[in-house]
Amino acid sequence: MTRAPFTRETADTRRQALVAAAETVLARDGVAGASVRAICAEAGVSPGLLRHYFDGVEALFAAAYEAVGQRIDAALEAAVAQAGPAPRARLSAFLTASFKPPVLDEQLLAAWLAFWSLVKVNAVFADIHRRTYAGYRARLEDLLAACDPSADARLAAIGLTAVVDGLWLELCLDPTVFTPAEAGAIAERLLAGYSPTPVFLD
Which stretches make up the HTH tetR-type domain (predicted)? Predict the structure, then answer.
């Protein structure tokens, strides 16, 4: 029997499986427990295969951090698209999407915390963090400006990003303190303070 050729699709599938496994193991065991053996066991591949696709565990972790950021971006953009054409509705959808699945997820939080632990000690992760949050703030600035060109979109985006992050973190850690709806209401109230006009209060 002739063995099927090794295809690009198979390679991509295995690479993605390793990235997903790295996220799962990081969320479960943290950076200290995320060994090559544990990750490959989670992915269902031999330990030697990791080196075939990545220049070590650090490169795999970086790919996983990028992948998680892209997944969050996709979820936020999907929420904006579903909100319709009204600028205010699109802005609200972007802000409150972080308080709903798939962004509001305990495993995603655990993996994100593992990535954050590497940001201050590793330049590669610091760069990913910088680019990820810059993209988030830029998108938020665009949505803010579409609602009210007179608002200070840059400062509003910085403040609201910090607020959303904090609310998301607390919701994932202890959802008994407040509800996702209340988190959204808090973000909306703070949003109103950045506009010199009542456009953010509708």
Answer: 12-72
The pTM (predicted TM-score) of the whole model is: 0.88
The encoded tokens of residue 50 equal 């990791």
pLDDT digits (tens, 9 = 90+) for 56-78: 999 999 999 999 999 999 999 99
Per DSSP, 195 falls in state -
Domain boundaries, the chain: 59-201
**φ, ψ dihedrals at 111, nearest 5°:** -65, -40
Identify the burial level of 202 via C-beta atoms within 10 angstroms of its C-beta, where 0-12 means exposed, 13-18 middle and 19 or more buried. Answer: exposed
Does the 59-201 domain belong in CATH 3.40.630.40? Answer: no
Beta carbons within 10 angstroms of residue 15's beta carbon: 18
